[in-house]
Amino acid sequence: MSSGNGSYRVIGTRPRRHDGAEKVTGSAIYGNDVQLPGLLSGFILRSPHAHARITSIDTSEAEAMEGVFAVISGKDFPEVADKIADLGEGAVNLSYLSDNVMAKTKVLYKGHAVAAVAAANVHIAEEAAAKIKVEYEVLPSVTWVMDAMQDDAPLLHENLCTDHMGEKDEKPSNTAVHMHFEKGNVEEGFAAADVIVEREFKTATVHQGYIEPHVSVADWTTSGRLKIWTATQGAFTARQQTAEVLQIPISKVVVTPCEIGGGFGGKIAVYVEPVVALLSKKCGRPVKITMTRADVFEGSGPTPGSFMRVKVGATSDGKLVAGEAWLAYDAGAYPGGMIGPGCMCVFSCYDIEHALVDGYDVCLNKPHTSAYRAPGATQVAFAMEQVLDEIAEQLGICKLEIRQFNAAKEGVRRVDGPVYPRIGLVECLDAVAQSDHWNSPLEGENRGRGIGVGFWFGCGLKSSVNASVNHDGTVNLTEGSPDIGGTRTSIAMQLAEVLGIDTFDVIPQVVDTDSVGYTDVTGGSRVTFATGLAAYEAGLDLQKQMVIRAADLWECPVDEITVEEGEFKGAGNSASFKELAQQLFKDGEPLVARASVAPDCATNGFAVHIVDLEVDPETGKVTILRYTAVQDAGKAIHPSYVEGQMQGGAVQGIGWALNEEYYFNDDDTMDNASFLDYRMPTMLDVPMIDTIIVEAANPDHPYGVRGVGEPPIIPPPAAIANVMSEAISKRFYDLPMSPPKVWKALSETS
Amino acid sequence: MAKTVLVTTTINGESTEFLCKPRESLLEILRNKLGMTGSKEGCNNGNCGACTVLIDGLPVDSCLVLGVEVEGVEITTIEGIADIGQLDPVQDCFLEGAALQCGICTPGFIVAARALLDKKPDADEQTIRFDLSGNLCRCTGYDKIVRAIQAVQESN
Amino acid sequence: MPIVFIPAQLKSLTGGVSQVEMEVDNVGQVIEQLEAQFPGIRDRLCDGDQLAPTLQVSVDSSMGTRGLRTRVAEAQEVHFLPVIGGG
Q1: ω before A736 within 30° of 0 (cis)?
Q2: Apex CA A460: angle with CA A457 and CA A465, to 5°?
Q3: How far apart are CA B72 and CA A331, in angstroms?
Q4: Of A665, A719, B8, B65, which sees the most CB atoms within 10 A?
Q5: How does B105-116 read in b/e, with b if 16+ C-beta sit within 10 Å?
Q6: Residue A564: beta bridge partners?
Q7: Is the pLDDT assigned to residue A89 strictly greater than 70?
Q8: Which residues of chain C lie closer than 8 angstroms to A344, CB-CB?
Q9: Which among B35, B39, B138 has CB closest to A680?
């Protein structure tokens, strides 16, 4: 498949999104907007303790309350086998999933769900929940990853032993997995190095911070099918997870993905769906639960905190020769965190001949972790990019040049083994070198400029679409990728391009699991790439059908029909797509096309960010003065939405760098579970985010698309940390670099 | 049991009556009683602005206003920012400038931005950012939102 | 004839051998041949008759989508990697 190099009619333009009018007028239906006759409201009771055995639950008083229709607890859930399922985006242990949805015998973090109530309104539900009597035997708890790895740490799972790629230790541990990767011989590599820098880093737990809390609605049909409306990044994975937790066939479940208010990886695992399903089953009424904001922080899936040790050696010319990393990541309450990609990404931006990585997935009394955009990559970039900067400082080499010198390119082997195909990091670094930002002077005290680099795989996975032609020549396109950032339009544009029609003659709809073929999640930077590819192929299918029908209509051989820019010609006739569609409607089969894809490649996205900032020595506050995000998009289908991903990810990363963290009390409960104290960037905290889109076409997509959603979150903490050393001659090895820490460091050095 | 209260108010130019308990917020009433789901619940404690409405022209977080407090006031919600079938220039510029991704914060921003531009039509970038810092967005990084608001200013 | 890379964590089973060139059609056959050469390695890579759910196979620059049936005959390199989820 070659990537188009020529100019496009539709691709690269910036049409208004198809769902835009609904969204700017407030009429789009998100999960919490779903209204059904007889709808009840639910509330989830959660553990106040970070670690405890549940000794008894008495729901009788709650059940007796007026206005209460159903109460459930862990005992209402069927037993789920301890089996691992492939949910299309990583492997999930189903019994852990079920236990996380509602605790059975133990609570493993403050906020762990223990019971739920369905009532006439949410206030009654909340009051009833308070009347559920739960007795706990409180156990010691642990929330720092290094403490959790100790032999005497409180154990979360009595039967969990460390897995070393299929071989398990004998002794139970909180460390669920140990991974190990090697390339070359690091001893040789370090022996040849002229300079070696080794540093230790810590990062705190952070949350994706989507503005819409988790919300699901459940209703059972008379024939026994479960209907779910939910905020999810993947209706099909939500269906599968819900069916597994409830132990019912997936054919009995239909999930409608509502418009979704942000996900970033945090709305892939199910939390509320099985709960509302069971409540609804018990009382025979539809039930909706919206998580409170505190529950979102304490009861959904923040991303791992970490401890990292990274050591890199270079020769005096700046060539990196050896890298070693020791990484311990939170898994949260259950195994299955993001240590894998962390290990694979730590050295992934550079060509290093010898490398060794050890990574540990560690259970501790925090909510089970979820992906936050590029899971596990931001943490290691914070470490590696600083070590690289320090090497550059020691060798007196420009920080951009050392990256250009060592940049990964086609043919470079990653520490985990695969060799890169055509990638665009070099082009991104060149774009930085030529950018106005990099070449503008920056003066003033306590100011500095830095860069950070990030890599994310970007996956393919499965997508299905249907395309059917309306007799007015427009095309209905049904697809199964929840639209979190304008993708229904980017996908429609790819179909419009191949058919030679206008973007608004394609009517895209995101539909439920009954209405389209299996489609994997909106995540992993895959939708514009993979669902777009499916739309492209459906377009080719449609075009082929119309060619055959045109030949029949115009009574000539099929190979005499040509199609150019949507115009069909043959035997002296010609018709536009619309004209032909209108003619063909009159007799013969309706024009319906389909495509399903499972592209097996990664799209390999690289991002480089430049940041100028200023530190206020009196308060420790960091002001971002100027920010430029450079990223290889392969091909920007709709540039505004590519820019949007870059800008959004950059600002999330700025928050991660400068302020966001879970504060834990002495009893390991979260102290700041609100937007007031879990301080995300507001409009006032950031400047304009300039963007430079590099297009090093992806050979595996007809338009050259690479996934763009995840890489932008990786560079910011790294770039900002690198600037701190410029601005105030102080390096920070802990995230976040929040004002109290910066102020303290400054007052210690002055 | 708390007494049910009858409240008479004006919403989007229309006189409206509803019954509520004292503890019910304006946001709940708009969404659950009056079927106006355009104002969104993001945090329910006044920290995200997704529920922004105007009361007598001033932007407020409707989750922090009790239903019983709006007797006799004039409320404007996202549903009333423009006439049916029309778009306010703020809405239009948001669409043109791709100033939304998931869209959950968008109604709140549009209401707040409308109020800002009505009061300070020539607000500079810093004033825009300061006055709208009570509206959180997690998707866009704010860049295109600011530019959309500036585009409204330029078109005037 | 692909070169199959032995995961670093399994080198204790292979006496340090890190790559094996072999003539095979699919990943299942790769594992069979590895097992014949290095007994015990199959249990580390498989869960019953499936590829371990925590693993995926990289075949040159592609990720295998058919588990043990993933074709490798025309490939140059085969690697066993952790499954990656995105966000």
Answers
A1: yes
A2: 150
A3: 53
A4: A719
A5: bbbbbbbbbbbb
A6: A567
A7: no
A8: 81-82, 84
A9: B138
Closest Cβ–Cβ partner in C11, C61, C87 for A370: C87
Q: Do B104 and A29 touch (CB under 8 A)?
A: no
In terms of Cα–Cα distance, which of A496, A505, A454 is closest to A630? A454
Dump pLDDT digits (tens) for A188-243.
999 999 999 999 999 999 999 999 999 999 999 999 999 999 999 999 999 999 99
Cβ C7–A370 below 8 Å, yes or no? Answer: no
The alpha carbons of chain C give a radius of gyration, in whole angstroms, of 12
Q: Across the interface, do C87 and A421 touch by the CB < 8 Å criterion?
A: no
Q: With CB atoms and an 8 Å threshold, state whether A601 touches C85.
A: no
H-type alpha helices, B12-105:
26-28, 89-96
CA-based nearest distance C85→chain A, Å: 4
Rounded to the nearest 5 degrees, what angle is found at the Cα of A363, between the Cα atoms of A330 and A672?
Answer: 55
Enumerate the residues of chain A whose CB falls inside 8 A of the CB of residue C64: 600
Instruction: Cite the DSSP H helix spans in chain B.
Output: 26-28, 89-96, 106-119, 125-131, 143-155
Q: Which residue of A has its CA nearest to B139?
A: A648
Percent of chain A with pLDDT over 90: 93
Residue range B146-154: average pLDDT? 98
Separation between Cα atoms, residue A397 and residue A419, nearest integer Å: 28
Count, residues in chain A: 750
Residues A355, A324: Cα–Cα separation, whole Å: 6
Per the model's pLDDT, the better-predicted residue between B122 and A460 turns out to be B122
pTM: 0.97
Yes or no: say if A385 and A715 are a contact pair by the CB < 8 Å rule: yes
Exposure string over C31-60, b if 16+ CB within 10 A, otherwise e: beebbeebeebeebbbeeeebbbbbbbbbb
Beta bridge partners of A92: A85
ipTM above threshold 0.90 = yes
Q: Chains contacting B with at least 3 CB pairs below 8 Å?
A: A
Q: Are A239 and A266 in contact (CB under 8 A)?
A: no
Question: Which residues make Cβ contacts (< 8 Å) with residue B138, sequence separation at least 6?
Answer: A208, A209, A210, A211, A262, A264, A648, A652, A680, B105
CA pair distance A682, A627, nearest whole angstrom: 16
Task: Return the percentage of chain C with pLDDT > 90, whole number.
Answer: 78
Which residue in A516, A267, A278 sits closest to A371, CA to CA? A267
For residue A280, give the 3-state DSSP assignment: helix
Q: Decide if B112 touches A, using CB distance below 8 A.
A: no
Q: Are strands C19-21 and C46-47 parallel, antiparallel or unpaired?
A: unpaired
Angle at the Cα of B147 from the Cα atoms of B145 and B148, rounded to 5 degrees: 65
Best mutation site among A25, A27, A126, A127 for testing chain B: the one with the most B CBs within 10 Å? A25
- Say if residue A171 is exposed, middle or buried (CB neighbours under 10 Å; 0-12, 13-18, 19+): exposed
Residue B135 near chain A (CB below 8 Å): yes
**Contact predicate A326/A383, CB 8 Å:** no
Kindly give the pairing relationship between strand C3-5 and strand C19-21: antiparallel
- Per residue in B102-131, pLDDT (tens digit) is 999 999 999 999 999 999 999 999 999 999
Find the length of chain B.
156
Residues C22, C26, C30, C32, CA torsion sign? negative
Q: What are phi and psi of A609, to 5 degrees?
A: -115, 145
Residues of chain C contacting A419 with CB distance shorter than 8 Å: 60-61, 77
Res A380: pLDDT: 98
The edge-to-edge listing of strands for the beta sheet with A253-257 is: A68-73, A113-119, A40-46, A287-290, A215-220, A226-230, A253-257
Q: What is the CA C55 to chain-centroid distance, rounded?
A: 9
